Amino acid sequence: MQLNHREYAGFREGITVQDVIDENKFTWPKLVVRCNGKVIWPQDYAQTVLQENDDLEVIHLLGGG
Amino acid sequence: MIHICNVERYHAPSAEELQALRESHVLLKKYDYERKPLHRGYTDKILTIDVGTKEAMIADIPAEVKEKFIGGKGYCLRYLWDAVNPQTRWDSPENEIVMSAGPIAGITQYGGTGKTLICTISPMTDIPIDSNVGGFFGPYLKFAGFDALEIRGKSDTDVVVVIDATKGTISFEEAPMEHFDAHILCEELTALYADNENDKKNIAVAAAGSAADYCNLGMLNFSFYDPRRGVTRLKQAGRGGIGRVFRNKRIKALVCKIGGVKANLNDVYDFGLINKTGLKFHREVANNDAKQNDMRGVGTAYSLRTLADYDIVPTHNFKFGDAPGIDEMTAAVFKADWLTQGAADGCWYGCSMACAKASDHFLLKTGPYKGQRVCVDGPEYESAAGLGPSCGIYNPQEVLEINFYCDTYGLDTISYGTMTAFLMECYERGILNKERTGGLDLTWGNAADDLEMMHQMARNEGFGKIAALGIHKQKEYFAKMGWGDMNEMNDFGMEQKGLEYSEYSAKESLAQQGGYGLTNKGPQHDEAWLIFMDQVNNQIPTFEDKAEALYFYPMFRTWFGLMGLCKLPWNDIVPADNALTDDPKMVPEHVENYLNLYYGVTGQKIDTKEMIRQSERVYNFQRIFNIRMGKGLRANDAIPYRSAGPVFEDEYLWREERYDTQLVELAGYTPEQVKSMSLQERMAATRKHREDQYQKLIDAVYPKRGWNMNGVPTIAHLKELGMDLPELLEIVEPLQ
Questions:
Q1: What are phi and psi of B111, to 5 degrees?
Q2: Strands A55-60 and A2-3
Q3: Which end of chain A has the lower number of beta carbons within 10 A, N or C?
Q4: If pLDDT is split at 50, 70 and 90, which confidence band does B622 have?
Q5: End-to-end alpha carbon distance in chain A
Q6: What pLDDT shows up at residue A65?
Q7: In the predicted model, is pLDDT for residue B318 greater than 70?
């Protein structure tokens, strides 16, 4: 599985988008999550199970002046 | 939680006090003028005041200046260039402070439309500094009839300059009895020039503070009157010592009085379009802010806790990126215990983002106002991170008190925070000790002595005189005294071009190292904030990608400074469906909003290409201005190693596994080689790799910006931009 275009060492059977966010401490409030190009909305993070060949992007939007 | 409905109004100066102030004023000179109303965002007039001769002159802004420089920072730099010469320094009489709000500034239908840009030759960098500020003064200056104000000369007595648009007068006055510290001075002048309580909102004041008399990091406050609280509040043009120049000219304050803010004082081209665009934005803030950044609840300090999770907080002078005590000063703590909720906290009319939070009736524990209760603005992220974790301080009360005194004394919170952190590291390393600091114990986290140092700066005494210099000159002084090694201090003193870094650790983002190092004015994040794109999102992995970002973002963000716009409404709130767009990080709908605002105000249609082109003209002009003043070349874009990697052993050991892994994955060592290397060898290898990377980054960025390998804009590029002006060619031709 790829996370932000890098091999994700923490992949395991049954891992969800929410698990990836928690494990990486992605606490930034404005994230755009895409799996294989499809947007995953926050309410679906915990139910979205990732597969070995998935390409996951967790894009942190910019902020600040 | 404190709600605005429970906040008591602040006490205003009494009628007797005001009468005494009024009677003490001496009118030195007064001019009548005819106010020219705005048309499509411009008056096309500039006001020049000479505080030495007490002259006020009004001139037309030529069409070619308007075409190439647009407004805001563009106007400031153009007029500053014309005023100075390569020998001009910050305290030369011909050095000017130029301010301009830009064509969109002053509309009240969209968020963040009240910004003013200010430029001067900086006492910290000896090159032009630009700094942006909210508050009323810039928009009111436009309503008073002026797209820009340039201030030259030096007064021999403290002077207040009053622009009264209601009477059509510009006057120079001595005002000997008013205080110097900004929170009182602005309150006094607001009350003094208002016809009544209701009129206070029509008064804008610009003032520095008592420390700006002595400190290179002196800043300039712009006031905005808060009618709900009954108090004059302050926003800051913080960077680069503008307040020091202001006080060196012996300006006590500028006052601008208008007849009132109305919906269409800019006389815009398409008011309906602006209204429609604004309504869309306000709905977005109302529906999404609480779910996104909660700017209305805590302001930009929302990011303090979460940035520690990414090793970005500049803990202990940027040594580390996490912050062990950060849970004591999270957004939730500020919101629950310190920042008043439910108030319309915009620093300009119509800003529904309302991020100018305040701590009300805050009890001061130190200094000349000890025991008094005051209104403290902020802290914004930069202030909180720089005054807090950077110095090892995690107590919100202490951070707020330091923030308050910075503001009222006229000190830049960013430079003050980064500078104090440098001094604390010097203290830790034995470069400083109690004998050298006059008894101050600058141990990490010692807020009491941090504050005492600041009070000394305001009184121009003791170690405060050394602190007043800023890091660049402190390094020279410590080396001269034989206290510290210059090379070592250059590694951990977080300044570049003479300006202190703003508050993001860039060690794991090469692009952000360039985002700081390749700036025009010095390491401020307002040109490019690329850490997430680079370090976390991995969206710009190659040198070519990073170079493109370091071309595009500085140009895109410069545009806000030409227009009089705040950048926060661009990306600190996004439409609910932003994730579905092709490029969510750019917030395409908001970019479209800005193009609509520009069209709605000026009647000129532009696209993003022209937006970038407008900025690029001014950006290259500023680069050549730097060269003219003796900097602006590749050598001046060097960065302190602390910005790129671990300087000391404990710093490497903090993320040893990460650095060791990078030696294998990025620097070409085998795991066996790394295992056999000593700590010092691994640190040296890491340093060599990271410094090489930075040079390769520069090699990629300069051509992308149309510059040669010494960082000089090429003549071909200037011609392409329509900026092959004779005065620019004269500078760059010998350097091609």
A1: -75, 145
A2: parallel
A3: N
A4: very high
A5: 35
A6: 58
A7: yes
ipTM of the complex, rounded to two decimals: 0.96
Residue with structure tokens 């008190």?
A: B401
Tokens of B720: 């392409």
- Is the CB of A41 less than 8 angstroms away from the CB of B579? yes
Question: Which A residues 20-49 touch B at CB under 8 Å?
Answer: 25-30, 32-34, 39, 41
Test B529 with A39 for CB contact under 8 angstroms: no
B310 with A28: Cβ contact below 8 A: yes
Whole-number pLDDT of residue B534:
97
In chain B, where are the structural domains located? 14-257, 271-500, 510-573+606-639+705-735
List, for residues B534-586, the tens digit of each pLDDT value. 999 999 999 999 999 999 999 999 999 999 999 999 999 999 999 999 999 99
Rg (CA), chain B: 24
Question: If you measure CA to CA, which chain B residue comes closest to A38?
Answer: B580
d(CA B502, CA B525): 7
What letter does residue B28 receive in the DSSP assignment?
Answer: E
Sorting pLDDT into bands at 50, 70 and 90, what band is A62? Answer: confident
- The domain defined by B510-573+606-639+705-735 carries CATH number 1.10.599.10: yes
Which single residue is written with the structure tokens 């006020």?
A: B56
Class of domain B14-257: alpha beta
Whether residue A65 and residue B300 make contact (CB cut-off 8 A), yes or no, is yes
* Residue of chain A with shortest Cα separation from B305: A27
Cβ-proximal residues to B672 (8 Å cutoff; 6+ apart), any chain = none
B306 to chain A nearest CA, in Å?
A: 6
Which residue on chain A is closest to B301 by alpha carbon? A64
Q: Which fold has domain B271-500?
A: 1.10.569
Model confidence at B199: pLDDT above 70: yes
CB B425 within 8 A of CB B475: no
Q: Which residue in the set A29, A59, A63 is minimally distant from B584, CB to CB?
A: A59
pLDDT per residue as tens digits for the range B238-289? 999 999 999 999 999 999 999 999 999 999 999 999 999 999 999 999 999 9
User: Is residue B319 predicted with pLDDT exceeding 70?
Assistant: yes
- B583: closest CA among A59, A8, A30? A59
